[in-house]
Amino acid sequence: MEMILPVLGGLGLFIFGMNLMGDGLQKVAGSKLRQMIAILTKNRFLGVLVGTVVTMVIQSSSATTVMVVGFVNAGLMNLSQAVGVIMGANLGTTVTGQLIALNLSDIAPIALVIGVFLGFVSKDKKKKDLSEIVVGFGMLFLGMNMMSNGLAPLSEMPFFHELITKLENPWLAMLTGFLLTTVLQSSSASIGILQALAGQNLITIGIAMPILFGENIGTTTTAMISSIGASKNAKRAALIHFLFNMIGTLLFMIFLQGPVRTLVLKWTPGDVRSQIANAHTLFNLVNIVVQFPFAGLLVKASEKLIKGEDPKTDIASKFLDRRMISTPSIAIEQVRQELLHMGEVAGKNLLVAKSSILENNIEAIDELNENEDTINKLNKEITDYIVELNRESLSAREINSNSNSIYCLNDIERIGDHIKNIGELSIYIEENSIVFSKAAHEQLDDLFNKVHLNVVTAISALEAWSKDKAYEVVEMENVIDSLESQYREEHINRLSNGTCEAGAGIMFLDTISNLERISDHCNNIAGYVISNQE
Fold first, then answer.
1. 449: Cβ–Cβ under 8 A, 6 or more apart, which residues?
2. In angstroms, rounded to a whole number, what is the distance separating the alpha carbons of residues 83 and 237?
3. Mean pLDDT computed over 110-133
4. Rounded to two decimals, what is the model's pTM?
5. Residues 36, 327: Cα–Cα separation, whole Å
6. CATH superfamily of domain region 322-531
7. Which pLDDT tens digit goes with each residue over 194-224?
8. How far is it, in rounded angstroms, from Cα 332 to Cα 389?
9. Which of 385, 374, 322, 313 minimizes the C-alpha distance to 348?
10. How many whole angstroms separate alpha carbon 230 and alpha carbon 238?
């Protein structure tokens, strides 16, 4: 018991500190993290770099790979891009081991004091986030020190020496590493335990290397589990992670174990902690270099092993993935993508409404109603997602972003409602054989075109977060307001002189009223874009 409590307590502090440091780094790097993810669309090599940096920030290759599974599931990333990020994630996770190898346990109490003090006295959100990083850093090394000291008595225990003798079988050692990481769900924690043992001279690099190779397979189980219930492509992304690490492990176990051991012994003789960290980094770096040219084959292998397409579902959202909730900076980007998707559906539906009312295309009403149902479903799904996201620890910028998303969501949903109103007017027009005059028809066509342009421009402003586009919406809204008043007055004159029927008059006025309100909501969206850049 005297040994178990310090070891388990130290492991708990180590994992908690690592997560706290990752959370703080993520909050500080939030918007930059989203920008880095956007780079993925360029090429696979950049994907490796982004995967490395993102994992260094969030301190978990498993979390990065789960994120990749979510991106692929949402259609934000294809499998070719996913391969690069997965490779980079493996390299990024080696940073924790390199930090531990520096043996900074002596400054852990100082880091804790500074971090806690900074958290208490700072009112600024960024400084509080910084305090999380410093406290997490201190806790990580304090936990490492506790583990290392707690493991010291093992040197006097016969059963441990028997265990070490058995682990001289490299394949048994590899299996041990796999099981350890599968249970802990963190390769960094597993490597930390190895380094804690090394700190007490309880393990040699010869035994440690096969264990850390096995840990690289064990870390893939997190993504495999997270892909349950996801799309076929998401399952393929998780499988690619497994294949990549499995191939690398077998390659090192059979061919490269000896050369790597010789190299790390030469670099840092007598320092097993550093040898473990360097072997881990070398494993992942060499694995990337060897397998990167064959990344396409990994994709093809995953497609061969997991065949078929996904069945259609009743879920309207394309980008939302609850696996991303724990990574708010990414989840917020998914919300934005889904808002753009919702706006795109609304813009498309306005053209359907135009066809139904101006071309007497009553068959289009079914399509209009389907699109309106999609908008309503998206409204609920996005709202539920944001509510769940708001329960996380968010930065001030992220909280503000979610508030603006709710406002935009409401405006797009109201645009959908006004389009539905126009669809109902077209049914009434068809059923009562109402015909617009030539002038009324031309004015409706003109207003439909201008309002549709404003919807498209508003969504473009939201997509590019463009102030210039937003001001275009404001200018067009003023034009539409003036035209609505002008066309209303001219139509009343046509009713007075008998050019237009009374029934057509009511339908005309109701239609332009709905169109003007759609433009009002576009103006609201533009206002959110402008206010967030001032």
1. none
2. 7
3. 85
4. 0.71
5. 14
6. Phosphate transport system protein phou homolog 2; domain 2 (1.20.58.220)
7. 999 998 889 999 999 999 999 999 999 988 8
8. 8
9. 374
10. 10
